[in-house]
Design goal:
about 15% strand, alpha/beta
Length: about 400
Amino acid sequence: MRRHARPLYVAVACVSLCFTFGMMLWLSCNRPCVVDGGAGGISKGLPHGDRQSAMPVVEYYVHGHGNGHATRAKTVANSLQGSGEYAMCVLVDPRVARALEGTLGEVVLVNSLPSSATPWGILRTLVVIVQRFLMDCSCDVCQRHARPSPIAVITDGDLPGVLRANRASIPSIALGHGYLFSSTERPVYIPQHAWDKQARLNRRITSRSTYVVGASFAHLTPLSDNVIVAKPRLRPAVEQAVRPVTAITSNTVAVYLRDKGTGVALIHALVDLGFRVLAFGNAPTDVEGVEATAYSEQGFVDAITNAAAVVGSSGDNLIAEVLHLGVPMLALYTVGDTEQEINAKMYEHTGKGMAVSFEEATFDVVKSFTSQLQVYEQVNYVFDAPDVVEATEILLKRMQKQPPPR
């Protein structure tokens, strides 16, 4: 029986896909996305703050994998809503909704597409596709704001969001870090295979979007005039932090690791080299000399600001923060994680630190990194670009003044 399980799963998946897209095609012919002059969100909204029906509406779709998307969305949405020029409707997966607590405007819970390729994951994906397609025909979010249609749809990692914009002929902005890989030129120091893999993954959204705002911590060249490379707008705690001159002589290293089971050898190396290790995220804490630290936003910012160095997974948010603070970093990635590999190598190219895979992070590598902290500290790296909020405002105003490009 087991030998026939995989073909059976494939057959079920194919039949389900055919049925799903057949239903979607039929529905698209019988229930247009714009009904009675309106354009839609979903029928159950969670209001935050006062309704401002006079302002143009912007829908902001946020993917549910990791907190990076949601953290960025909260910053952008609050800035746009707080400007008094836009009414924001943020549509977010329940898994990361907590990160959007305190968001201005309206917050709506939606399901993101699952990333699992298991039979259950495929079935769940089909269910979510149908749910999201039907949801987009509901059309009552804009009606609550007395607007015929949103002026724009922003998507941060959410494919159904940009498809919703396409069906309703609404201009769209793909806003996120990964979109850089499909909308800018590959730097010569980045491996071709890693860049191409990320470009393929992100092109499914950027190719369907009117504009792209790529959140970056490094200089990159856009492939078209419809792309803006922007720096992140950092959280206030980081913006307000000041790194003391004496930090570089500290014996403290802050370690943040995204994935469980990684970094054990390098933690031992840091302890053996005499460093006090503050562990955050999934960094191992069962090593003598390591201090497990309960997470708080201010506590984490204080730790990385005052540490001699940061050792961490190569997420773009963390890299942007250490670059802003001027803290040297050992940027880590797992072999096969091409996005974090690219981030790490881009960071290394700034001259502020070193990139290495977990698999190659030996004692000698860690010792080499820590022996060069004074050199890294003295590098003055400047990335001059609008931030993601400023870039989004530029594009929204462009949309209101002239028809978007086809």
